[in-house]
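In response to the reviewer comment on reproducibility (Comment 2.3), we provide here a single inverse folding case reported in full, input and output, so that an independent group could reproduce the run without further information from us. The C-alpha cells appear first.
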C-alpha cells in the first residue's frame, strides 16, 4: 500500500452498524415491551383472597355525631376495601387485628363552604399506631357526601400506614 492511500473496507463491513441497528429495531418492534415491565404491571394489581386475614377489632366514632350509624356503615365498607388493597407483608394464613377510631369529626360552615375537620387513629396489637388529620372543604348542601369523602381519605391513610408498620415488623 502506498503512502497517502486510504484503505477501503468491503461493503459488508461498512454496512454492519446499520444492519445491527435495523435488526435491533425490528426485534424490539416484534417482541414488544420487555417481559419485566409486564410482570411488574401484573404484580401491582391487588390479588383477591391471597392476603392475610385482617380483622377490625373495634371501630369508634364520636358519640355526638349526627348520622353516626350511616357514617359507621360507610366507614366499615371503606376500611374493608382499603384492608384488601394494602400490602401487609404477611402470608395468606396470617391473622392481623387492628382498631380504628375517629377521634375528632367537626363540621362548620363559613362563607358558604362546609369545613370538615377529621382526626383518625389506627392501632395494631403491639402498640404501633397511625394517625391521620385532615381539614377539607366542600358544598354545604352535600354534607353527607363531603363527610364520607373525608372518612375515605383518613381511612386510606391510616390503613396504608398500619400495613407499612406491620410489613416492617414482619421483615427481618
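Designed residues, in position order:
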Amino acid at each position: 500500500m502506498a503512502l497517502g492511500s486510504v484503505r477501503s473496507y468491503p461493503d459488508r463491513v461498512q454496512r454492519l452498524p446499520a444492519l445491527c441497528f435495523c435488526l435491533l429495531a425490528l426485534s424490539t418492534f416484534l417482541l414488544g415491551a420487555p417481559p419485566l415491565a409486564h410482570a411488574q404491571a401484573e404484580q401491582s394489581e391487588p390479588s383477591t383472597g391471597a392476603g392475610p386475614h385482617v380483622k377490625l377489632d373495634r371501630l369508634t366514632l364520636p358519640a355526638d355525631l349526627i348520622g353516626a350509624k350511616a357514617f359507621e356503615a360507610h366507614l366499615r365498607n371503606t376500611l374493608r376495601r382499603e384492608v384488601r388493597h394494602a400490602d401487609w407483608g404477611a402470608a395468606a394464613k396470617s391473622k392481623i387485628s387492628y382498631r380504628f377510631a375517629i377521634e375528632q369529626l367537626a363540621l362548620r360552615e363559613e362563607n358558604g363552604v362546609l369545613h370538615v375537620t377529621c382526626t383518625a387513629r389506627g392501632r395494631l396489637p403491639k402498640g404501633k399506631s397511625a394517625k391521620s388529620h385532615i381539614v377539607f372543604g366542600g358544598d354545604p348542601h352535600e354534607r353527607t357526601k363531603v363527610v364520607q369523602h373525608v372518612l375515605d381519605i383518613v381511612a386510606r391513610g391510616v390503613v396504608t400506614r398500619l400495613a407499612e408498620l406491620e410489613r416492617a415488623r414482619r421483615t427481618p
